[in-house]
Amino acid sequence: MDADDRERMDGLTVPACERCPELVESRSRIVDGTGPDDADLLFVGEGPGQREDERGEPFVGRSGSVLDDELRSVGLERESVRITNCVRCRPPENRDPTAEELEHCRGYLEVEIERVDPEVIVTLGKVPGEHLLGRSVSVTNESGSVEEVRIGDRPRRVLICLHPAATLYDRSQEETFAEAIETAADLVGGGSSGGQSRLGEY
Ligand code: URA
Predict the structure, then answer these.
(1) Does residue 202 sit within a domain?
(2) pTM
(3) Residue 43, ligand 1, Cβ within 6 A
(4) Cα of 127 from ligand 1 centre, angstroms
(5) Ligand 1 neighbourhood includes 48 CB (under 6 angstroms)
(6) Where are the alpha helices (DSSP H) in the chain?
(7) Which of 33, 88, 141, 167 is least buried, going by the fewest C-beta atoms within 10 A?
(8) Domain assignment of residue 46, given as a range
């Protein structure tokens, strides 16, 4: 993160950016993170897909429905968590963002992490897991594990999680995904084991 990234951001949004020529070409808009600016949980996906690009909000397509359902089932509302992506512009054909694109957007993500200051960062899928942990990650095997890693200027707690879309491709992953989300809720005291957020169920 450098001073330029901070200056370009208006609070938690990036009003304009043309660092990645292919993404500028493929996007309709920049998709910033949503949710409270002081959320305890920050979910980080890979990058916007078609629906997200259309609506200007992360995880509003099928993956978003899977995430919303799982959050609800552990007693968390989508509105109580923050959701963002490694890159803020839709890659063409929904390809993975390149290393260069990830690097171009890294400062914005670091500023967001610094300003939200979440208790736990949940990486959704391989790309954000590897991007934030700085190593190769086998999400299927490591989903649900927590690691401390320096991001920006301080150590952060990162929970590795499958991408919600993995459960759509392979139903046997549902339990693994559900367990990681339950762990996320437990780590911030909002899981199904108790807490105020559960009262709405009754
Ligand atoms: N997949 C992601 O990684 N991010 C989104 O915002 C939507 C789908």
Answers:
(1) no
(2) 0.93
(3) no
(4) 11
(5) yes
(6) 3-8, 21-26, 50-55, 62-73, 99-116, 126-133, 139-142, 165-169, 174-187
(7) 141
(8) 3-196
CATH number at residue 181: 3.40.470.10
| Cβ 33 under 6 angstroms from ligand 1 | no
In a domain, 175, yes or no: yes
- One pLDDT digit (tens) per residue for the chain, 202 residues: 788 888 889 889 999 999 999 999 999 999 999 999 999 999 999 999 999 999 999 999 999 999 999 999 999 999 999 999 999 999 999 999 999 999 999 999 999 999 999 999 999 999 999 999 999 999 999 999 999 999 998 999 999 999 999 999 999 999 999 999 999 999 999 766 444 343 333 3
Is the shortest distance between the CB of 46 and ligand 1 below 6 Å?
Answer: yes
Q: Is 123's C-beta closer than 6 angstroms to any atom of ligand 1? A: no
Total domains present in the chain: 1
Cα-based distances in Å from 74 to 78, 79, 182, 197: 11, 14, 6, 9
Atom 7 of ligand 1, nearest CA residue: 59
